[in-house]
Amino acid sequence: MGRFLLTIRSHFAAAHRLPDYPGDCARVHGHTWGVEASFAGQTGENGMAADFKELKELVAWAIRDLDHRMLNDLPAFANLSPTAERLARHLHRELVRGLEQRGLPVRMARVTVWESPDAGATYEEE
Q1: Distance in angstroms (rounded) separating the CA atoms of residues 17 and 77
Q2: Dihedrals φ, ψ of 13, to 5°?
Q3: CATH of domain 4-123
Q4: In 3D, which of 14, 18, 38 has the Cα closest to residue 27?
Q5: pLDDT one-digit tens code per residue, 1-29
Q6: Are strands 69-70 and 4-16 parallel, antiparallel or unpaired?
Q7: Domain map (residue ranges) of the chain
Q8: Residue among 110, 35, 37 nearest 66 (CA)
Q9: Cβ atoms of residues 56 and 95 within 8 Å
Q10: Helix (H), strand (E) at residue 55
């Protein structure tokens, strides 16, 4: 049986530094991070797997504490370099938590975080 993937795109602005990186990214710099969150599910009686409005609100909730922040200063990245990969995993976990709290009828499929238009990292559970 097939499934539907519903994808929400959003973005936020934040700075970070990669202390262990042997190059320019070791210094503080910022990105307008792109986020693509995909949710998997089946359609219900109304023909929808989930309401896009609710999913957009969920994604906004997940990125709320990242916007206009220094990612290195956040508890989620204590003693961790806030790479795109770690940011994607962090958002995946936040979205799973948000889905559980809201009781939405889909599951988290994957999250892609873009640090530029042509470079991103995707996280999905195995």
Answers
A1: 11
A2: -105, 130
A3: 3.30.479.10
A4: 18
A5: 679 999 999 999 999 999 999 999 999 99
A6: parallel
A7: 4-123
A8: 35
A9: no
A10: helix 52-63
